[in-house]
UniProtKB/TrEMBL annotation:
It holds the Pfam family HTH_1. Keywords: DNA-binding, Transcription, Transcription regulation. It comes from Fusicatenibacter saccharivorans. This is LysR family transcriptional regulator. Residues 1-58 form the HTH lysR-type domain.
Length: 284
């Protein structure tokens, strides 16, 4: 089946004149006649009948016309979808854990000089792994090693435990502090519905320190807002969002907790040159 010949068939059926149809299709009249003759030979039936200087569909042509229209409609939808995929393919989809989303990823894109369009999605590491595997994301930034052998990943940077304090706080000028020093001040903690709450409790428990929160919140944006407005300080893994507020992050020297962030992607896949260059730029 030649899709172009089916287009010719449909146009001739509509205009009912070889000369007019050939002009509309921007082909020669002999070329159109050859295409119709080829279809008739292929199907074994006459598709048109002469009516003076014009032509009309034969009874066989009328029966085939509905199928031809459906085929051409489906072909048009396929072309439109393919065009959409080509446009989408130029957009790099980035899945990232929240600690890197606000500052690190935009900074990396700017430092690289990215000119490609991109979309950033905030997700948890398991969701990023799943998204990389099923093609939702092109590049992932995660907080732990991924298990799938279909993915490649490289360490990007380490995180550490810090005390987030508001401007003007007595601890603000210190280069680092101990957990005991931090425990003397009211604590803003994550709520028990947050995955970070257990980490906060673990950090204090390792030092045999008991603290009671003065207020709690589930999201880091609210935690930083409470700290910024003087409700207390917060012990948490360093996150770039701290830099977006009037808050100082002081490393806690007595905490041994460390976490690595990784850049990851599928081992095999179709990539644009810019996407490949960006990944390789940050691969360690």
């Amino acid at each position: 089946m030649n899709i172009e010949y089916l287009k010719y068939f449909a146009e001739l059926a509509k205009l009912q004149h070889y000369g007019k149809a050939a002009k509309a299709l921007n082909i020669s009249q002999p070329g159109l006649s050859h295409a119709i003759k080829t279809l008739e030979d292929e199907y074994g039936v006459p598709l048109f009948q002469k009516e003076g200087r014009n032509v009309s569909l034969s009874r066989y042509g009328k029966e085939l016309m509905q199928d031809v229209e459906e085929i051409l409609d489906a072909y048009l939808r396929m072309e439109e979808r393919a065009a959409g995929l080509r446009t989408e393919e130029k957009t790099v989809r980035i899945g990232t854990v929240y600690p890197l989303a606000a500052g690190t990823i935009p900074h990396m894109l700017r430092e690289f000089g990215a000119t490609f369009p991109f979309i950033i999605y905030n997700r948890l590491t398991p969701e990023i792994e799943e998204g990389l595997l099923d093609g939702k994301y092109d590049i992932g930034f995660c907080s732990e090693l991924l298990k799938s052998e279909e993915l490649e990943y490289y360490p990007l940077r380490e995180s550490y435990i810090a005390a987030a304090v508001p401007e003007g706080h007595p601890l603000e000028g210190k280069e680092n502090i101990t957990l005991k020093e931090a425990a003397k001040y009211p604590q803003v903690m994550f709520s028990r519905t947050s995955g970070f709450r257990s980490l906060q409790e673990q950090i204090f428990a390792e030092q045999g320190i008991q603290v009671k929160s003065v207020c709690e919140a589930e999201e880091i944006e609210v935690i930083t807002g409470l700290v910024e407005n003087g409700f207390g300080i917060s012990i948490l893994p360093y996150m770039d969002i701290v830099r977006l507020h009037h808050i100082t992050a002081i490393p806690v020297q007595t905490s041994s907790w460390k976490s690595k962030f990784y850049i990851a992607r599928r081992k095999y896949g179709i990539r644009t040159a810019q996407e490949e260059a960006f990944f390789q730029h940050w691969r360690k």
